[in-house]
Amino acid sequence: MRKVLIIGGGLSGLSSATFLSNSGYQVELIEASPKLGGKTYSFNYNGSKVDNGQHILMECYSNTLEYVDLIGSRKLFDFQESLSLTSVDADGKAYKLKVPKHFYPLNHLIGFLKYKLFTLKERVEIIRLLLKIKYMDEKEAKSKTLYEFLVEQKQSERTISLFWDNVVISAMNTKLKSASAEMFIRIVRIIFFENKRSANIIIPNVDLSSAFVNPAQNLINRNGGKISTSEKAIGFIVEQEKIISVETNKRTISDYDFIISALPEYGIRKIAFKNGVSRLKLPALEYSPIVSVHVWLNENPLKEKMYNLIEGEFDWLFNHGEYITLIKSSAEKLVTINNNEVIKIVFSELKKYFAIFTNIEIKEYVVLKEKRATFISDSDSIEQRNSLFNPYSNMFLVGDWTKTELPATIEGAIKSGKDVAEKIKML
C-alpha cells in the first residue's frame, strides 16, 4: 500500500486525504494547530456552535459537492431550488432577485429583467454583458482590471457600484480596481452558464466543522489513516531532488512515498530546507481581510436566511435564528478599528437597513477579523500562480492559491486537493 504524508489540515489537505484514503492509499496527515479545517472551522460560544465566518456556496462548486458526497454530509446543506436573493437598501426597501426554475438559460435573463433594484435600461445593460461574457474569450481581458473592463463594456457607474462590485467582492474578496477581469469572466461563465442549477446558493444548516471537517476526519480514520494535530512541520531534508524526510516539532517522518503540502504559500516559506536553499518557486501574493460579526439579540424578527446590504458597511447578513452574522469582505477599514467601534457600526447598520431593529437590543457579540482571509485575485496573482513550479519529484502543493484557475474559495481549495489526488493515482 502506497503511503502519502499530508502537511496541513485545512480543506485542501482534507480533500487530498479523503480522496486518496478512499482509493486505498495509506494517509497520514499532520496539522500544526489543535484543530482541523484551517480557516473553515467552528467554535463554542455561550452554548452556541459559531463559525469563524459565513461561507456562501453555489451549485457550480462541483468539486465541493463531490467532496461532501464522499464524506456523507450533503444532507447537512440547504439547496435553493433556483437562485433567489433579497437585497435591502439604506432606506430599508427590499428588492428580490428571483430566477425561475424553468426555461434555462433564459431563466437568468428573465430573473434580471424583473429585478427592480435597477431601471429597465440598467437591467438591459447587465443582461447584455452577461450574454457577451458567455461567448467571450477571457484572454481578451488579460491584464485588465475589472473596473477597466466594465467601463470598456459601457456599464454605468450605478450598475458597477450596485451590482458588479457586489458580485466581485463576494466572489473574489477583491476590489474592482484590483480584481482580474480575466478571472471574473471565467467565474461568471461558470456561475451563470455551466448548467441550469449552477447559480443556486447552498448554505450549511449546521456549523462548518460539522459540515466539512468532522465527517472527513471520520472517513480518514475509518480507512485506516492517521491524523496528528498540534504537530508542526519545521524542516525538509532533500536528497537527489526528493524530500527524503520531514522534521516536525515532535519527530522525523520518512516513511512515505509522496508528500502533499497543504500549507499556504507564506506557511511553506517558514519551513527550513536543511541541506540547501528551497528550490520551490512560490508566488508572492497579497492578501485581503474579511470581518465577521456574530450578534445575539433579545429577539430576532428576520424571516429570510440571508440578505444583501446594498452599499452598506457590511455586505451580507445571515440569519441563524438564535443569532445573526454580518460579513464584510475586502474589509480594510473595519479590520483596523477596535471592536467597540465595529459593534457601533453594526447597530447603526441594523437600524438603517431594518426599521424593525430600532427597539431591539444586542445581548452578546463576537467580532472576528481575518487579516489574511484570501489572496487578492488580480492579474499579477494569476501570472504567478500559473508559473508555479515544484522541483521535487515526490512533493505536491495544494491550496486555493495554487493553479486552480479560481479565486480563493472553498471550491478552489477542495479542487486543488482532489486534482493532486488524481495525479498521484496515475503514478
Write up what this structure looks like.
This protein has helices at residues 11-21, 62-71, 106-113, 120-135, 146-152, 157-172, 181-193, 208-222, 265-268, 339-353, 379-386, 410-426, and strands spanning 3-7, 26-30, 42-45, 48-51, 57-58, 77-79, 84-88, 94-98, 201-204, 226-228, 233-239, 242-248, 252-253, 258-261, 272-273, 287-297, 306-309, 316-319, 324-329, 362-375, 395-397. With 427 residues, it is α/β, with parallel strands linked by helices. The protein has 3 domains: 3-75 and 206-283 and 377-426, FAD/NAD(P)-binding domain (3-Layer(bba) Sandwich); 96-199; 287-374, Alpha-Beta Complex (Polyamine Oxidase, Chain A, domain 2), CATH 3.90.660.20. The strands form 5 sheets. Strands 8-7-17-18-19-16-20 form a 7-stranded mixed beta sheet. A 5-stranded parallel beta sheet has the order 10-2-1-14-21, covered by helices on one side. The protein has a 4-stranded mixed beta sheet with strand order 13-12-11-15, with no helix packed on it. β18 and β19 (324-329) form a beta hairpin. The model has no long low-confidence stretch (mean pLDDT 94).
